[in-house]
Write a structure and sequence with these properties.
It is built from 4 helices and no strands. It has a domain at about 95-145. Helix 2 crosses helix 3. With about 160 residues, it is mostly helical.
């Protein structure tokens, strides 16, 4: 309860102090004659005339270097291309899909489900992407666009 009283006293002090200081500033401005002239609604105010800038000095360009100083740009070696991976041999039967799907599903948390969907995709699209993840674009639209009945991508 005492803290509320202290806050109330402090708030009153600040209110009185700020109102006194604003009146003091107005009095000082009026006494010094530093107030703006009062304009009537019919008065027009014209903008001050523009200040002229001194002209800029002429632009001086450096002469080109003599031909003997100019050197040829450094030549870059051609980019080194990584060797292309061997082409994926498309499986012809479900038995040929099994080893490729085992590699694909090796690190999957649900291996049985991964193998079942991988074998289905392999049987329909005749392709299994290389590696354990990604590279789906290597098998084409059949593999990348196959979805479940819920609309999710089917192939691992």
């Amino acid at each position: 309860m005492a803290s509320k009283a202290v806050l109330l006293v402090l708030a009153c002090f600040l209110l009185i102090h700020t109102s006194d200081s604003s009146e003091w500033e107005e009095d000082v401005l009026i006494e010094s004659g530093a107030h703006a002239p009062v304009l009537s609604p019919n008065d027009t105010v014209s903008p001050p005339p523009p200040k002229s800038c001194p002209p800029l000095p002429p632009l001086v360009t450096a002469p080109p270097p003599p031909p003997s100083v100019v050197s040829a740009p450094p030549t870059r070696p051609p980019p080194v291309m990584a060797p292309a991976p061997p082409p994926v041999k498309p499986p012809r039967t479900i038995l040929e899909c099994i080893p490729q799907c085992m590699v694909r599903c090796k690190n999957h948390s649900r291996k049985n489900i991964c193998m079942r969907t991988c074998l289905t995709c392999c049987n329909r699209c005749k392709c299994v992407p290389p590696g354990q993840y990604g590279n789906k674009e290597k098998c084409g639209k059949c593999y990348t666009d196959m979805t479940t009945s819920g609309g999710k991508l089917k192939c691992p």
